[in-house]
Design a protein that fits this description.
Elements (H helix, E strand, L loop, with lengths): L2 E2 L2 H8 L5 E4 L1 H14 L3 E5 L6 H9 L4 E4 L2 H10 L4 E4 L6 H9 L5 E4 L2 H10 L7 E5 L7 E3 L12 H9 L4 E5 L4 E3 L3 H17 L5 E3 L16 H13 L8 E4 L3 H4 L3 E11 L2 E4 L19 E4 L9 E7 L8 E9 L7 E4 L20 E5 L14 H5 L1
Length: about 400
């Protein structure tokens, strides 16, 4: 992978016609080390967030060797990088074929479920294996999440105790898990989830081997400024202490966005300006999916070839290159007023889901990926980097 000192250097040398994706490995290492040093348990990287091989290599080199996977392809991608990595199949609805191949071919022992039917499927497909680690996912509130994940997965509180008792009969090790939703903006969601876990433990009298508090740890965007991750970890520790268990189970989390978001950015080029509308060469069918329907506002900055940049800032909407009117990003994206055709814009915080959501719709697809060594546009770990965007 070709490497550049900065994004600006990349643009000067390549003058890219297509969108360019940038990876910052040092950012991943920094976030990984932060979680390893501060979180009171084991870290499982959520592969769905960014499965690129260079990302996975950097994750492993940073000391994280356990992975939250949702498909066989993710298992395969991880094993190519780290053959003995432990994969936890945390998708609660899996095909029998996927379970069978994961267990018998790739040695995956850990599976998640939220229904009796899924439990039966796992037990039957693995021929009643005696070495299964089974996680019962319960439904919890996603009230503080920007993206609600509570409607699709999770056993209801009324169903969970019975499912836990049944699962315990078939598991070598049993886990209880929840997910507070993506980009969770308040730490209290985690302690509430832990309280729900505690209620199930009291009702069933079953002490799990694992408590998995899931993902949802946030990153920073211009319009979404969460509390420090330290506050999240402290809230989690308090929640675990309040369980008042003689022996605490092994604690697991599944961060994705919080580890890789800052590491990625996309460089786009302006194809046309219509007043406060900018037509760019990437969009919601490319790396900018989350700027569409979820309306995540990415930090943006203008890259020029040395001409004067206007001090007057203007809020712009973005339109992607496809013929689909849904290829629209409301923003607002705040940029210098004199931006024009052929100018380049760097959009930050795209390490999370940027590469994952790309399609080839209308023939617009770019796989130009480079490594850069400059700092992320915004950072949970560097307040100075955020000043320009938060003031704007």
């Amino acid at each position: 992978m070709q490497k550049f000192k900065t994004v600006d250097e990349l643009v000067r040398q390549l003058k890219p016609e297509k969108p360019v994706y940038c990876i910052r490995k040092q950012s991943i290492q920094r976030a990984s080390n932060f979680f390893k040093n501060k979180f009171p348990g084991k870290i499982l990287y959520a592969v769905k967030t960014n499965p690129h091989s260079e990302i996975l290599k950097t994750i492993v080199n940073s000391g994280i060797e356990d992975f939250d996977v949702a498909s066989l392809e993710e298992v395969k991608n991880v094993r190519k990088i780290k053959p003995n990595a432990k994969c936890y199949f945390m998708h609660t609805v899996k095909s029998r074929e996927s379970i069978k191949e994961a267990y018998f071919k790739y040695g995956v022992k850990a599976f998640s479920l939220d229904t009796k039917d899924e439990l039966i499927k796992i037990v039957e497909t693995t021929n009643s294996a005696k070495d299964l680690e089974l996680f019962v996912r319960i439904s919890v509130s996603n009230e503080h999440a920007e993206i609600d994940l509570s409607k699709k997965f999770g056993a209801l509180n009324s169903e969970a105790p019975g499912l836990v008792r049944l699962t315990n009969q078939y598991a070598k090790k049993i886990g209880l898990s929840f997910h507070v939703g993506s980009q969770c903006m308040h730490p209290i969601s985690y302690s509430k989830g832990i309280t729900e876990i505690g209620n199930i433990i009291k009702k069933t009298k079953i002490l799990p081997d694992y408590i998995n508090i899931g993902g949802g740890f946030p990153t920073i965007y211009p319009d979404l400024v969460p509390q420090s991750l330290d506050n999240y970890f402290e809230e989690i520790k308090k929640g675990l202490e309040n369980l008042k268990l003689e022996k605490l189970p092994e604690i697991i989390c599944e961060p994705g966005r919080a580890i890789v978001a800052e590491s990625g950015s996309t460089v786009v080029r302006v194809n046309l300006r219509k007043k406060q509308k900018l037509y760019i060469n990437d969009g919601t069918y490319g790396t900018l999916f989350d700027a569409g329907v979820p309306n995540i506002v990415y930090p943006s900055r203008l890259i020029t070839s040395g001409r004067l940049i206007s001090k007057k800032l203007t809020s712009f909407d973005f339109y992607g290159p496809t013929c689909d009117s849904m290829d629209y990003m409301k923003g607002p994206f705040v940029l210098p007023n004199n931006i024009k055709e052929n100018d380049y814009i760097e959009l930050g915080q795209l390490g999370a889901y940027g590469l994952t959501f790309r399609t080839e719709f209308n023939g617009f697809y770019s796989n130009e990926i480079y490594e850069v060594e400059d700092k992320p546009i915004m950072s949970m770990f560097d307040k100075e980097a955020n000043k320009a965007f938060l003031v704007a």
